[in-house]
Specification:
With 325 residues, the chain is mainly beta. It contains 1 helix and 16 strands. A 12-stranded antiparallel β-barrel has the order 1-3-4-6-7-8-9-12-13-14-15-16. Strands 10-11 form a two-stranded antiparallel sheet. It is globular and about 60 Å long.
Length: 325
């Protein structure tokens, strides 16, 4: 009875944390961010690829993604110190990621891990400047993007099927950024993002459910005197697996909801109360098996943005491949 009560209380605490973050997210006012996007990549927070690997192991995975979107209705948006309209953006990211579990068990049964993400970005932008009555301007750039470091990853098994995690992500401004340049691979500011996870895995019936909720706090971009307000993002994935192709193949849905909870500030935030939000949903295909005794996993995801305000609207396609050592 005591064990059941403990499990029930732990599950309740996990659900309460996610619910509180949802509540803050839904009731908050929203504002736009510089460059009409933050460090959070849509669809990335609810993937099982981001889970803490088992004790004394390393999970390495490659994330290949492409986003293609545009703003609607002649919307003016801030971009690297400029005001532009009719924004078309195409971004490709090839990211190499490592998560390491050194086998450290903390009090209460928690496990510790750390991670790093090294993105290579290619960005192509086409706009019409609000200050220029001429034709469209185009720019493209590629190179190392902003590295994400996760010095703190904590995992706790609530029960046989329910697991919880907490990640603290730091985005460093390592990518190239130039004022008045349309296509930049970096944001030129730091972001600090705590993320809470809750996951359900039922191996007998092949069901998997993941939900994550996080907040991004951003430092000021000193080159443009622009500080992007804090953002909240929630992602979720539901997958049903069946035995197929020498492993388990799954199909499901993945979605996200993204908003800001504080206003942009600084001399560069000339648009004032520029409210924004984005919601996306799409199918996901997943595969997991063992090759040469090592767990491997693949995910193919497509997310279509269904409701967008004051941001580009488009589609994301991503392919993730992982192996555990």
């Amino acid at each position: 009875m005591y064990v059941k009560a403990t499990v029930r209380e732990s599950l309740t605490d996990g659900l309460f944390l996610v619910t509180m973050m949802l509540g803050v997210f839904v009731t908050a006012h929203t504002f736009a961010e510089e460059g009409v996007s933050g460090h959070y990549q849509i669809g990335s927070g609810s993937s099982r690829m981001n889970k803490i690997p088992p004790s004394h192991s390393i999970n390495a995975y490659v994330d290949l993604s492409e986003y293609d979107g545009n703003t609607q209705g002649g919307l003016s948006v801030p971009l690297a110190g400029l005001l532009v309209t009719d924004l078309d953006v195409k971004s490709q990211v090839s990211s190499l990621n490592f998560a390491w579990n050194p086998g450290i068990e903390l009090a209460g049964g928690w496990q510790y891990a750390m991670a790093i993400s090294l993105p290579y970005r290619s960005v192509e932008v086409s706009v019409r400047s609000s200050n220029d009555a001429g034709g469209r301007k185009r720019d493209k750039n590629s190179g190392l993007g902003d590295i994400m470091i996760t010095p703190l990853m904590l995992a706790y098994s609530i029960s046989e099927y329910w697991q919880s995690e907490f990640h603290f992500n730091i985005y460093a401004p390592t990518g190239d950024f130039e004022v008045d340049k349309l296509a930049n691979v970096g944001k030129n500011y730091w972001s600090f993002s705590p993320v809470a996870w809750l996951q359900y895995i039922e191996p007998t019936t092949g069901q998997e459910f993941t939900v994550s909720a996080g907040v991004d706090w951003n430092s000021k971009n000193d080159d443009t005197d622009y500080q992007t307000g804090a953002q909240v993002h929630i992602g979720s994935t539901v997958i049903q697996y069946i035995p197929l192709l020498w492993g388990f193949t799954g199909i499901g849905l993945s979605g996200y909801w993204y908003q800001q909870i504080s206003a942009d500030s600084g001399g560069g935030a000339v648009l004032g109360d520029f409210k924004a939000k984005a919601v996306g949903l799409g199918p996901v295909l997943s595969y997991q098996s063992k090759w040469s005794g090592r767990p491997v996993r693949a995910e193919l995801e497509w997310i279509n943005e269904l409701e967008v305000r004051n941001r580009p609207e488009g589609d994301l396609i991503s392919l993730k491949l992982s192996v555990q050592f």
